[in-house]
Amino acid sequence: xxxxxxxRNPHKLREIREIxxxxxxxxxxxxxRADLPDVEEDGETFEANxxxxxxxxxxxxxxxxxxxxxxxxxxxxxxxxxxRSARYAGEPADHAANNRKLLRELSGRRRRRARFRCVIALxxxxxxxxxxxxxxxxxxxxAPRGQEGFGYDPLFVPEGRRLTFAEMDAAVKNRLSHRGRxxxxxxxxxxxxxxxxxxxx
Length: 201
Prior knowledge:
alpha/beta, Maf protein, six-stranded mixed β-sheet, 6 helices, 30% helix
């Protein structure tokens, strides 16, 4: 079964392929479909953005489409950057600038609890959509550490760990991460659809 993944981010696509590694499942990134537009993420929640992307691309492409929206929620910042995580420091999206802004906002603060949240949506070509969510609690480090991953990975330390996501092996990160948790739920709950055994209209 072929599923269009609504991302042009190669790091995210690799993570998704590693976890949704099912027989007969082909995951195609949006970057391979130049005819498809970028869908504006203007929702107020992660779920709204994920559903909008999945449904829009499924209807346009005629394929099943999988989309996620995820971000970082920091308690001391009232849940920010939240749905604005990718462009926290402004346009265009810049991971390093986002990390610098986050550290400035938390300068001198002892309360550094945070969580990564991910919502994944899967839509049929007709627009029938379902969602799952994954959450990874943790805290924000005092300074960036590590070279792996992307986004806020150099600053995020998962609960019960000492290393940031950017200091971890990809396999370890995928076991702990919000996206990894959401994808495993998706794999378990949607296994018949993903394997092509049951495909409602």
